[in-house]
Amino acid sequence: MIYEHVNACIKFETERGIAKTTFKELSRYLHEFADYCQQNQIIVEQVSSDFMRQYVQYRGRGLGPNLIKAVVWSLRKFGAFLVLRSILSENPARPLRHPKMSPRSQLPRYLSETQLKTLLHSAAQKLNKRDFAIVGLICSTGMRPFSVAALKREHFFASDSYIFEMTKGAGYRKAALNTSLTSIIAEYLADRSDDHPALFVNNRNQPVSKSWVQRLVKKAGQDAGLTVNLTCNMLRHSFAVHASDRHGKTITKALMGHHKLTTTAVYTHLSAKRFRGLMNLHAYHKTALRRLK
């Protein structure tokens, strides 16, 4: 039965440490593919590139490019697993191509340095220590909301000013903190009377959730008078942009905990300030300045 191979593939990928959301997507798309195979009376040994291409066309009707890309990615994982188990000699999903996309046009906006200062100044005045620490943590490290919600007391090291952050794939990275943020988190922990292991807890002494962190950031942006719909992902992009402007992509890669520069490139934009600086280095600009003098 193809379902047995699908479940074995999902178990294999889970043991490799994929994220929960990735697990849900992989499980959903592979079980849908198994249903399609059963409807067409196709056994696993008969799965071919043409059949997978036919399925992608069938499944992709009415879907956007991002969802089609997720379907293709899931099929490639399944095909690679079948080759690994010597069920097939070649990965039938290898010839599949992702739909054409314009990722640059879909990237969220980022905050300028002035907007970031406005946000943090407003947060310092209007938020309590816990909420200000969370907003400051995302701004200064680019931390994802699920990582903030997963933080434990034992992950925070005040004496050395760093924190261990859970990353995608259930891994951890060491994120450096500035001294002021370290002091705020330490003061918040000192004021707490509970002994819950979570670093940040709500008013019921339970760990804050990912959705709660997202709502906090959105409200902080509104309270600061920002004209954009502020999100955690926008703050993550903002951190990457300004870190890249100051230190370059190699250091930004280390700061964000990425394994490849290509991953960091997705998060980095060319800021207007950096663009103007580069244009001023252009040979034509220098020649024009000499003529004006």
Descriptive overview:
The chain is mainly alpha-helical and 293 residues long. The protein has 2 domains: 2-103, Orthogonal Bundle (DNA polymerase, domain 1); 113-289, Intergrase catalytic core (hpI Integrase, Chain A). Helices cover 61% and strands 4% of the residues. The chain contains 15 helices and 3 strands. Strands 1-2-3 form a 3-stranded antiparallel sheet. Strand 2 and strand 3 (172-176) form a beta hairpin. Helix 1 packs across helix 4 and helix 2 (20-39) crosses helix 4. The chain is elongated. The N and C termini lie far apart (80 Å). Mean pLDDT is 83; it is low at 277-293.
Descriptive key words:
293 residues, mainly alpha, DNA polymerase, domain 1, hpI Integrase, Chain A, 2 domains, three-stranded antiparallel beta sheet, 3 strands, 61% helix, elongated
Low-confidence stretches: 277-293
Portion in strands: under 5%
What is the rounded Rg? 24 Å
Output mean pLDDT: 83
Tally of separate helices: 15
Tell me how many strands there are: 3
Main sheet summary: 3 strands, antiparallel
**CATH architecture tag of the largest domain:** Orthogonal Bundle
Give the topology string: H per helix, E per strand. Answer: HHHHHHHHEEEHHHHHHH
Overall 3D geometry?
Answer: elongated
Give the SSE map:
Elements lengths: L1 H14 L4 H20 L9 H11 L5 H20 L18 H4 L6 H14 L2 H13 L3 H5 L6 E2 L4 E5 L5 E5 L2 H13 L18 H14 L8 H16 L1 H8 L4 H7 L4 H9 L2 H10 L1
Antiparallel strand pairs: 1-2, 2-3
Helix pairs in contact: 1-2, 1-4, 2-4, 6-7, 7-9, 7-11, 11-12, 12-13
